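Give me the fold.
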Amino acid sequence: MLPRLHGMFAFVIWDRVARRGFAARDPYGIKPLYYAQTSQGALVASQVKALLATGLVSREPDVHGQAGFWLLGSVPEPRTWFRDIRALPAGHFAWIDEGRVGPPKCWWDIGEAWRSAPDNRLPDAEVREGVRAALKESVARHLVADVPVGVFLSGGIDSGALAGLMVEAGAHALEGVTLTYDEFAGRPEDEAPVAARIAAHYGIRHHVRRVTRDEFVSDLPRILDAMDQPSIDGINTWYASKAAADNGLKVVVSGVGGDELFQGYASFRQLPRLVAARRAMAMIPGAASALRWWADRRADRTGNRRWHHLPEWSRSMAGAWWLRRSLFAPEDLPGLMGNDAAQVALRGFDAALCVRRMCGDLPADPRLALGQIESMTYLRNQLLRDSDWASMDHGVELRTPLVDARLLGQAGAYLPAFGRFPNKTLMARAPTRPLPGDVIRRRKTGFGIPAGHWLQGATSSSSEAGSRALARAIMDSCAVAKV
């Protein structure tokens, strides 16, 4: 049954006659599903807080889940923030018998698409046409609805190209939603001007929603409640969903997943070079010692102790990814979560091994390995989970044409060729009327929001910059909200 299902889903089927349940999640893990074992039987829900609300589940923390948040910015499944609650892993199913949830079993491993990608050199034209056809089919599937479908329109390639494909597929009254902030005015992070250009290019009705610090401070308690588990992401999607709902949209399309599929992150260029350079250093006498000296100096100068681990973690793509994505170093954890909890969480810690446990075996090609890692870690545990709670809190259904198992299967034969198309030109030129050249060449800024600045001003005295400061501020805010 499961291989015949497409799209996003998480469900439980209960057989009243056999007194048996069947739970399953979609291959990517777009929709969440959590379970807990109690003295009164098994509990299953789409949110952690729903299980806690029963009063039957302990609030005892899971030190490994909490360490995962501090290290990566989100709680990696199947762990959660709480010891007795687990996430059913993406692409898995489980039977519920006699009040107990059986061991989850994998029915679809998306990592296989990267591991089994054929080592061929297809002509560029064949790659372009094959990818274009797969994208058009995915977009058409995600437009099926009995209400108008909108789009989160940033100034980026993914949402812009999706908008073009949606119009091409028949969404003639398409509406786009863009966020803007006073703090970004006149800076590259301000996506509203570019989004307006894309909207005009495709004839889209464009809504620009200004979000202020005062509004954010007022909304913060609701955001934290909706967040379910701590995360450094999702606030942008929460406001985009709020804007969509305010404009009467019940279904929106998001470009999430485009960077993972089409190798859009700068890390796809930088990390393979780093790993290759590290391996070359192993052949040069004294190079390893020089690297250790440089890494230690940089760690001391920046106060970011992750740099101490550069010589070790840069030996593999898994370790290099951890170096790039992690927020804090393992030795930071005692100060963040207490010495005893940190000792338990870090027992036997190995960054590269943690990545392999989340992803399974990795292909030898570094770009393919990174695509698999990003899709099975950052995309799954942070972007998709946050997209779900943030949109559902406003009653908005968020659809993800670029996070689709059928699309991944169709694109699998072309994955090794994606590196030949920089700046995600495969995506940008997929619509019959491609994105404008200046939009394609524009420096990537991401779907940003000045939440870290706002949170530090409202609840935190931290002077750290970036995601590390945001992680501290989120936890400070959670503590304030509890009080």
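The first strand starts at residue 10 and ends at 15.
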